[in-house]
């Protein structure tokens, strides 16, 4: 299956960026169940219902309003407004930032207009952080493709001067990430493998190399003074993290909504902090395609449901 994943992955990830594929797939008679396996729903109220259920189950959450690569200032403003309404509703579940808020929002700077103007996106992110801070909600800035990494980390670095709790994502498949982990070893860092189609010049391609890089990066974060967040469904990574976390004061596990639910429940039962990433919104296409690319079984599930109709 890893041979299949390796050969299909770039194809699916290319389709994730293709407007023609998006047009075809978002208009295909997809059953709600297929998309809803990975996405909480289209409306904010769908996300809030899922959040409430997960919190009742002892999970923590990070809610993402789907949208990326926004190319006009009006849409970026609309995204900010949606986040402000979301934070207000999530604040009812939280109340205070100390010690660890159960609710968080995740945001992509490209959804705040970073492709138009990084300063505008940074100001939009600042507005979101200020609202989140007073609602007792955390914010983590997602990682996108490698061409955005420098700008994203620069924005996060400057926002952390005012919002030291602000988190960001580092992607272990990038060759640069060990040094980024050293630079951010006092920060709240979500470490993931990375979900985009990256060239070999900047990224490890083989799964074993990505996992090895992940463990080196996690080791750096565990020796730092920050708050490592292990965002992975990989049993090898989760077992290694359990060992490395010995002696680390604050850390958490993170997984995506709809993926390895029994494992999420098992970690909660063990007394661990598990934060589930809950995406919602109508712009589900690229997110959904990245999930399909991660696992041939997901692609098969998707194709069966399309063909069955
Ligand atoms: P893999 O090696 O891909 O998978 C290991 C095992 O986990 C599989 O064998 C399978 O059992 C299970 N599994 C993995 N994926 C799936 C799936 N889709 N469906 C069903 N089972 C699966 N990436 C970014 O580039 N930027 C981000 O900002 C970002 N944020 C993330 C936030 C969270 C909370 C998480 C969990 C992931 C995030 N990712 C992000 C995605 C990440 O980079 C990986 O693409 C994704 O998590 C798959 O890698 P893995 O470590 O789970 O291991």
Automatic annotation (TrEMBL):
Span of the signal peptide: none
Pathway membership, UniProt: Amino-acid degradation; L-proline degradation into L-glutamate; L-glutamate from L-proline: step 1/2
Keyword Nucleotide-binding carried by entry: yes
Keyword Flavoprotein belongs to the record: yes
Domain of life: Bacteria
Names of required cofactors: FAD
Catalytic reaction(s) noted: L-proline + a quinone = (S)-1-pyrroline-5-carboxylate + a quinol + H(+)
Proline dehydrogenase domain ranges (all copies): 51-301
Name of the protein in its database record: proline dehydrogenase
């Amino acid at each position: 299956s890893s041979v299949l994943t390796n050969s299909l992955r770039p194809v699916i990830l290319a389709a994730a960026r293709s407007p023609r594929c998006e047009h075809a797939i978002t208009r295909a008679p997809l059953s709600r169940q297929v998309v809803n396996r990975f996405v909480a729903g289209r409306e904010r109220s769908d996300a809030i219902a899922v959040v409430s259920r997960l919190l009742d189950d002892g999970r923590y959450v990070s809610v993402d309003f789907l949208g990326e690569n926004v190319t006009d200032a009006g849409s970026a403003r609309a995204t900010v407004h949606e986040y402000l309404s979301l934070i207000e509703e999530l604040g009812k579940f939280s109340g205070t930032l100390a010690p660890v808020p159960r609710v968080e929002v995740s945001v992509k700077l490209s959804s705040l207009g970073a492709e138009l103007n990084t300063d505008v996106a940074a100001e939009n992110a600042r507005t979101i952080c200020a609202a989140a801070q007073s609602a007792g909600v955390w914010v983590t800035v997602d990682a996108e493709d490698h061409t955005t990494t420098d700008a994203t980390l620069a924005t996060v670095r400057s926002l952390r001067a005012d919002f030291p709790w602000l988190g960001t994502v580092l992607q272990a498949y990038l060759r640069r990430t060990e040094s980024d982990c050293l630079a951010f070893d006092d920060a709240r860092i979500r470490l993931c493998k990375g979900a985009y189609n990256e060239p070999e010049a900047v990224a490890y391609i083989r799964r074993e190399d990505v996992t090895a890089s992940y463990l080196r990066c996690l080791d750096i974060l565990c020796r730092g003074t920050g708050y490592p967040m292990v965002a992975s469904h990989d049993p090898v990574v989760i077992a290694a993290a359990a060992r490395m976390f010995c002696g680390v004061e604050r850390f958490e596990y993170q997984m995506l909504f709809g993926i390895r639910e029994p494992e999420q429940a098992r970690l909660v039962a063990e007394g661990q902090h598990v934060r589930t990433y809950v995406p919602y919104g109508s712009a589900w296409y690229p997110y959904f395609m990245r999930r399909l690319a991660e696992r041939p079984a997901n692609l098969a599930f998707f194709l069966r449901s399309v063909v069955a109709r």
